[in-house]
Amino acid sequence: MFKSLLTSTLFIVLFSLSSTYGDFDKLQLVLTWPPSFCHANNCQRIVPKNFTIHGLWPDKEGPQLLKYCKPKLTYNYFSVSSFIIFFRTGSFSVLFNLLKSLFLNFLQDKMLNDLDKHWIQLKIDQASARKDQPAWKYQYLKHGSCCQKIYNQNTYFSLALRLKDRFDLLRTLQIHRIVPGSSYTFEEIFDAVKTVTQMDPDIKCTEGAPNLYEIGICFTPNGDSLVRCRQSETCDKTGKIFFRP
Ligand SMILES: *[C@@H]1O[C@H](CO)[C@@H](O)[C@H](O)[C@H]1NC(C)=O
Questions:
Q1: C-alpha of residue 201 to centroid of ligand 1, in Å
Q2: pLDDT tens digits for 41-98?
Q3: 192: enclosing H helix or E strand
Q4: Pocket-testing residue among 31, 53, 171, 173, ligand 1, by greatest number of atoms within 8 A of Cβ
Q5: Ligand 1 atom nearest 170 alpha carbon
Q6: Portion of the chain with pLDDT greater than 90, in percent
Q7: Which of 238, 234, 188, 177 is nearest to 211 (CA)?
């Protein structure tokens, strides 16, 4: 009797701890339209004519988006220097460590390349972007810090890449005759994106200009299902929105 009471108490304690775990109830994948971003910012890369990741933002109902949830979080730079680990820690079998470091090297290299392709740091040149990783670091500390209990740095970035891979928004828009170089109503863009998300996306416009800037797609915390996004209300819903070429 006492034992089962203890067990159930323990259960309740663990359960309530796990619910404070993530402390977020959805994830917003924010995709940027580079021509609009580069029109407003000084870009150092060839402007890609396709959507790129801005960030993956944990969110929960409330007046403001979550941010900087874990102030002491550190960002580990993606690099290809894991061979150093091999030479320093030859404690296990040499072959095992060699294979492990080759594998880690391969993974890190792949992550760096995938991020550089799908999460382009537009404001700096490619070499500095791969080395200094300012946008990735900024996003991770600001937003990745709010889903730490579920996603570590590697799983956070892989999840963002995996979620982005599920949508080809440029193609979706094109199917609905929405192409760069012309203007469309908010509803036209919203409805076109919604055909693939089923749930309300967040269509964002450039501050002070009627340009299509970003599209947010929202998911449940595990990324398995889509949910409605918080609406940023940055677009003029009565006029036209320019899809910059
Ligand atoms: C745009 O990106 C998507 C996936 O992110 C890709 O499948 C598609 O081929 C790209 N389109 C162009 C025109 O590059």
A1: 19
A2: 999 999 999 999 999 999 998 888 999 999 999 999 998 654 555 555 555 678 888 8
A3: helix 186-197
A4: 171
A5: 1
A6: 74
A7: 234
Q: Whose CA is nearest to atom 8 of ligand 1?
A: 168
Q: Where are the alpha helices (DSSP H) in 23-151?
A: 34-40, 83-88, 94-118, 126-132, 134-142
Cα 176 to Cα 193: distance, rounded to the nearest angstrom: 9
Q: 204 CA distance to ligand 1 centroid (A)? A: 20
Q: Which residue segments constitute the domains of the chain, with CATH numbers given?
A: 20-242 (3.90.730.10)
For ligand 1, atom 12: residue with the closest CA: 50
Q: 179: which 2 tokens?
A: 């192409």
- Element containing residue 18 per DSSP (H, E): helix 2-22
Amino acid found at 92: F
Would you name the residues annotated as active-site residues?
54, 139, 143
